[in-house]
Amino acid sequence: MAKSSSMPSARLAPIIVFCYNRPQHLRQTLDALRRNPLAAKSDLIVFSDGSKGASDADLVREVRELLAETMGFRSLTTVASPQNKGLAKSVIEGVSQILDTHETVIVLEDDMICTPDFLDYMNAALEVYRNRPDIFSVTGYTPPIALPPDYTGDAYLAPRASSWGWGTWRDRWQKADWQVGVFAKIKNDPDWKEKLNVGGDDLWPMLIKQQRGVIDSWAIRWTLAQMQHSAYGLYPVKSKIMNIGTDGSGTNFTFKANTYGQELAIGKVDFDFNLQSDPAVQKTFRTYYNLPWRVKLKNRMKYGV
Q1: How would you list the strands of the sheet with 155-158, edge to edge?
Q2: Closest CA relative to residue 272, chosen from 234, 229, 241
Q3: What is the pTM of this model?
């Protein structure tokens, strides 16, 4: 079992969990969180999205019955939406609401398994980098990339935000423009495209699809905000988050995907306040997210990007 942090409860970030209609996934997510010693000192806020109709009403009801029985946290607040908002609107509104009264948050969706020291890691990262405005978010997840052999740090910076087991600060979150008012200016600008794609060449097509209404993603808008402010996301070298929603059951993953990394690592992470972006790490990170040529061809033919 991970050793509990000595940080006072008043400084611990509240935990937000977003869920919809997967009670079995949610149960695993909450069980993993409860195994963190800091869970009993942390406030949990769960945003439960409403059903789309009769087809998923029973599953949404099961989710809320599970939440009514949930224990093991300092407090539990359930925000049950009477209608279906969708993930993007739920996240933007929910995180904004909690950050109105808290300086930091830790955020998970209902398909994230974490290590028993995840909360220690996240709270420590949010504390250490509180005064680093060039770091917009921290995450417990790392993609399965092969870092350079001479890289000795426990964490690294990447020009991309992760939506899997992440956290942020109020002052950074408030810098995001969720309406992407700058889009008319940048949509045909190759320099903006290249700046965004430093985090992976899937990002620009994702932004185009978002603005055309093909997808509804809060994460691409959050990553764009990070890029606009020349900021980074902080990632651990060894992952403390595993996604169990890539089994075809999720809203965003309607197909099975097994390439996102499966190993979890318990162990203290040493944070360097003066950590800087490493070009070799950044290159490896970008390559992981670059699209295969078949997808690039489809994007070009179907969306012109």
Answers
A1: 75-80, 43-48, 15-19, 104-109, 166-169, 135-139, 232-236, 155-158
A2: 234
A3: 0.91
